[in-house]
Amino acid sequence: MKAINTVTGSASAEQLGTTLMHEHLMIGWGGWELDCAIPRFERKAALKNCVDRLKELKDLGLESFVDPCPMDIGRDVTFMAEVSAASGVRIICATGLYKEDLGITSYFKQRSVDEIAEVYVSEITRGIGDTGVKAGIIKCATGKGQVTAYEEACLRAAARAHRQTGAPITTHTDDGTMGREQLDIFASEGVELGHVIIGHSCGASDLRYHTDMLDRGCFLGFDRFGLDFLHPDKLRLAALIGLLGVGYENQIVLSHDSVACWLGRGLALPPETAKLVENWKPTHVFKNIVPALKRAGVGDAKVRAMLVDNPRRYFQN
């Protein structure tokens, strides 16, 4: 039985149960701590907010929660462990680095692929700093329409760390681009693509883009439900229902990419855009998306596959 690192110890894939595969407790863009014009971060209040959020999800049937925050945008695994212990929801955290335009890159641009991979391996096998918490997945990311040299190095490091540890890979993509190129890089490093989730694939409704990747054996993240200002939920649903209708239910996972707490200032959205994130919360799939799928004729077995069986398969592969 393969052990999965969680922030409070190890678990088996069979223990995961209903799982959201891409949510965040806390995000902080690089430099947030230099903003002296904002109130001091209230950790106790943030902790309560996150615990309450996860307890609400637990009441809806959630058992596990993957927080793939990379190491360079505010990851706090001690905070995650406290939230997990207080809420009773299992949390899996990540090692890895974010995309070039929003990550903290100066140090790692000076490192080789193998040196970056060594960091990832250490966080998976030894633990993150002196916290005692071990990462359970590897995160990497690309921007819109290109893979920069730095991002390629991080992707290759993720692949090499995966091959050394068995920890699966999950990715960030922008606007439904570069998923195929990510898979090409992983494949060139010898990764079996059933260990990979191409994240935010619902950022496009191009079914050829989706099926090109699915036919290579990876998982796709339909994991930004509620972010209508980036891509409307009705289009995410249309693409998802189409893919389920032709038999891809065993390769898709669901989530929202929601953020419970921001370090520093959060998203500054104009009023007309703010209305388009009213459903951007981790209850949305359970309260709205699953009922919409069922109204469209998607059966319970396919819903279960995306929320229970596929997370288990991803970690078992």
Structure description:
- This protein has 317 residues and is α/β, with parallel strands linked by helices.
- It has 10 helices and 12 strands.
- An 8-stranded parallel beta sheet has the order 3-5-6-7-8-9-10-11. The chain has a two-stranded antiparallel sheet with strand order 1-2. A two-stranded parallel ribbon has the order 4-12.
- The longest helix has 17 residues.
- It starts with a strand and ends with a helix.
- The model has no long low-confidence stretch (mean pLDDT 97).
Count of DSSP helices?
Answer: 10
Helix content: 25-40%
- Summed over residues and divided by their number, the pLDDT gives a mean of 97
Find the count of extended strands (DSSP E, 2+ residues).
12
Helix-strand pattern = EEEEHEHEHEHEHEHEHEEHHH
Structural shape: globular
- Taking pLDDT < 50 over at least 5 consecutive residues as the criterion, the unreliable ranges are none
- Report the major sheet: 8 strands, parallel
User: Roughly how many Å apart are the termini?
Assistant: 11 Å
Relevant terms:
globular, alpha/beta, two-stranded antiparallel ribbon, 317 residues, eight-stranded parallel β-sheet
Concise description?
Helix 1 (about 45-60) packs across helix 2 and helix 3 packs across helix 4.
Q: What is the topological layout?
A:
Layout: E1 3-6, E2 9-12, E3 19-20, E4 24-27, H1 43-59, E5 64-67, H2 77-87, E6 90-96, H3 113-125, E7 137-141, H4 149-165, E8 169-172, H5 179-188, E9 196-198, H6 207-214, E10 219-222, H7 233-245, E11 252-254, E12 259-262, H8 271-274, H9 284-295, H10 300-316
Parallel strand pairs: 3-5, 4-12, 5-6, 6-7, 7-8, 8-9, 9-10, 10-11
Antiparallel strand pairs: 1-2
Helix pairs in contact: 1-2, 3-4
